[in-house]
Amino acid sequence: MTKLRLGGFMIPSTGGSIENVEKGLAGTHPAYYQNSLRDIAKLSRQMDELGFDFVGFTEHHFHIEGMETSNNPVLLGSFVASVTEKLRLTQLGSVITARNPILVAEDLAMLDHFSGGRVMPGFARGYQSRHVMTLGQKNNAYYTVPNDPNYEEHDSVNRELFTEHLEIIRKAWKERTFSYQGKHWTIPPPGINWDHPMTRRLAPETLHEDGTLKEIGLSPNTLQDPDHIEMTVPFTMSQDTIEWAAAEGAWPILLHCLPETVRPILDAYHKAATESGRKISWGDNVGHFREIVVADTEEEAREISRHGMGYVWNEWHDWFGFQEVLRRPGEDKAPPNTPETLLERGISLCGTVDTVARGIEDLIEQYNAPMVVSWIFQGLVPVDSLLKSNDLLVEKVLPKVGVELERFQPVLRPEFQGGTWKQDS
Asked: Parallel, antiparallel, or unpaired: how do β-strands 180-181 and 186-187 relate?
């Protein structure tokens, strides 16, 4: 049997039909969001029971249009943690260029405790200008997207912030108390008076002799051992990010889906990982992103896809340059922006059990794929169709191609003894 880790990605879209979305401002409608939460809970419980490794949410703010009503993946992860037992919680991803990195580290550490050690952090650099440049204005943050005319300048600033913020997050998790000096952050700032007698007694290493603050620390810190926390980097499109992820041991989740572009990416990841001293097989430690829709007939599956990826990708994501990942080398422009293109270029695995089985088999044979992330278009597609699709995928498609699902087992801090709050309650 081939081992595979399966993830589910829900943006989520607003819990209203396409017809309701087209009336405008669907993202502000309270009933639609309640519908969305109901569907998220149903799908997450099902994924937990079926053996999915994780579920992921993104961070995109101000989505009054209703396409990506997912402004806080940590809070959504907390919601899902309350209705599941084993399903891990990733962020695809937390846009840390526009956030306070200390608060991100704290929030994820709390979620790790709420969930009993199920956090699989994912960090992104941010491609939506409305979000990144509004929330990140104090950091002078820029978005990064391939069709930006000032891409090189903006991408450089974005990457610089991302690198520093991630360094702070990891340092905060790794060290019980810490300080940091970088281009953008001094932690703690100099001259903070904190000559508290209890701090002098219980945490003297955090103070200078004059009573000013020397270091800080997270409370609580992660439940998982930080040396064993897996990290995702969605949805990777640049060579620099691939090589960086390989050196860091992070899981890039590839948006690219064409053999002509995927194989060079896997070559680059494997080469960079090997040069960093990591011994992995070609194709290992890389996730592949697809819409996966399984139904009784080809027509039924395509109708579901037309209301899911066929609507959201074609009406929303194309504007950000996503269609470029479907362009083959040598083509003078991206292919037509249609639902049919998504199927023809292979980013949507859509059809009967036999059709989708061939697509999954191809992923494994071509790329030695250890992880597949299914984009589940919760909200715009009736939830019963999605539940049925997941059932067919796990119960029919995967056994047909000799695939067995596996889950990563988190490693908790060695000083942790006893059961988690949920086990003991």
From this structure: antiparallel
